[in-house]
Amino acid sequence: MHRSWSWSDLLLWLVMSAVLAISDDPLPLWQKGIMAVLLAPVVVASRRWPVPAAAVPLALSLATTGTLFAGALMVPQVALALLLGRHTAGARAGLIFVAALCVVAAPVGGVPAVASALTTVMLPWLVGRLVRRHDELVHDGWELAEHLEREQELSRLVERARIAGDMHDSLGHELSLLALRAAALEVEESLDDAARKAASELRESAARTTDRLHEIVDVLREDHPLTSTSIAGLIEQARASGLEIHVDGDPPTMPPASDRAAYRVVQEGLTNAAKHAPGSAIHVRLSTDETARRAVVMVRTFAPTVEPGAGFGLAGLDERVRLAGGHLTAGPATVGGFEVAATLPLDTGATPARPDAKLQLARARHRVRRSAMDVLIFPAVTAAVLLLAMVGYDALTGSPNVLDADTYAQLRVGQDRASVEARLPAYSPANDRPSATPADPTGVDECRLYRVHATARSPAYRICFTAGHLSHRDRLTIPGQ
Questions:
Q1: What is the CATH architecture assignment of 402-476?
Q2: Per-residue pLDDT averaged across 436-440, rounded?
Q3: Which of 15, 168, 238, 305 has the most CB atoms around it within 10 Å of its CB?
Q4: What are phi and psi of 435, to 5 degrees?
Q5: What are the beta bridge partners of residue 330?
Q6: pTM across the whole model
Q7: Strand 446-451's sheet: what is its strand order?
Q8: Do 249 and 280 touch, CB atoms closer than 8 A?
Q9: Ordered DSSP codes for 141-156
Q10: Residue 151 CB partners (closer than 8 Å, separation 6+)
């Protein structure tokens, strides 16, 4: 059974737990322990559900500290953001996640929280995407090399077929004429018996040479058909030599390439059984999947142990099966013994079409350019969009809290509170008060701050009430704003 975790997951979780334990955040030890326990399944789930996994440490930070980016959870946030980029194929999921995080961070912590979102989440996510792109480029490189190798093999097969055709057309014709002339000499009345005998031997030799030529041509031509009866004949031949063979199913009708590959799979399996597991029973299974249009050819040797060979035959067999558009597996069987199995296409055009080398190279270059966009252009565009969004948010939330300069000038100390409040903006949140605001006058009942401009938090107008009247009005300049 394939396990759902890996040693890298365990190592990452141990690092996260260690950072939680040694962090100087004012969190109880039991709370840190619960966080560490919760992060264990999150690390494992990040491979399949990277977006929810990346959101968990942010939610834990918000729930325990009231902020999105607590120091104790910084390493989990960075690591899971990196895995988000590593385990998602496209950029859409990461974009939506970063944008949603900035929307949440803006009202919770303002500009510093948005900046933390960009550095703690977006940058690691981009690094993860870069790593994924690198791995994809390496994979494409190997695919391109394999494709070129196959093209070379196909070119070799085409050349062999051309040579076979030339031999058949030229030598076959000459040998046929030679046999015909020898037959004519054999019935010539003017020749004696010795000459007729020599002519007969020449005709038989030409016929044998013609047969031999056909065998050589068949070896050169990789596309000549091997009928299904060839597999049955091969099995009967092996039984006649003393092998115990059990056959399940009938040889399927396949195109020439698949038929030849299936024949070679059975031949290799029987040869290995006779050589490395003499006396053991052999099971040959032949079946078809009409839905998938595939044939399965399997040879299993029932033996306690099977002595392995050099593997050259299996390597060549694997190449033959791949060229036919199939897939070969060879190794110890789950029920014991050794098994060689191949899945082959039932249709001539079942081999998946592969793009040519130039097209694959163009795609690889396109991926390189996309990687450059991810690392350089994309962060700049994202930062610009988020900056505009922050400016718009600030203007939207700040405009109801702006006190007009003319209205402020008309306010007089001692005015009735009700008449003053009728002229003030309706919105004045408590969290709109900057931390560097000068202390309020002593003895007042309430002080409010109103913005001078819609997009700035300072300077600000301060309006204070005492005993139902306006007692203080002044304009504040807050240091650092």
A1: 2-Layer Sandwich (3.30)
A2: 73
A3: 238
A4: -70, -25
A5: 340
A6: 0.45
A7: 446-451, 460-466, 469-476
A8: no
A9: HHHHHHHHHHHHHHHH
A10: 357
User: How many other C-beta atoms are found inside a 10 Å radius of the C-beta of residue 216?
Assistant: 15
Closest-CA residue to 27 (of 55, 54, 67, 56) = 67
Rounded to a whole number of angstroms, the CA Rg of the chain reads 41
| Residue in 27, 131, 67, 30 with CA at minimum distance from that of residue 375 | 131
Show me where the domains of the chain are located. 7-145, 149-220, 228-350, 402-476
Instruction: At 183, list the tokens.
Output: 């037959």
Which tokens hold the place of 285? 């299974």
Residue 340 backbone phi and psi in degrees, to 5: -120, 120
For the domain with range 228-350, which CATH number is right: 3.90.550.10, 3.30.565.10, 3.40.50.620, 3.50.50.60? 3.30.565.10
pLDDT tens digits, 41-72: 888 888 888 888 888 888 888 887 777 777 77
Q: How far apart are CA 35 and CA 23, in angstroms?
A: 13
Among 265, 240, 241, smallest CA distance to 251 is for 265
- How far is the first Cα of the chain from the last one, in angstroms, to the nearest whole number? 61
Number of separate helices (H) and strands (E) present in the chain? 14, 8
Question: Within 10 A of 104 (CB to CB), how many other CB atoms are there?
Answer: 17
DSSP symbol at 309: -
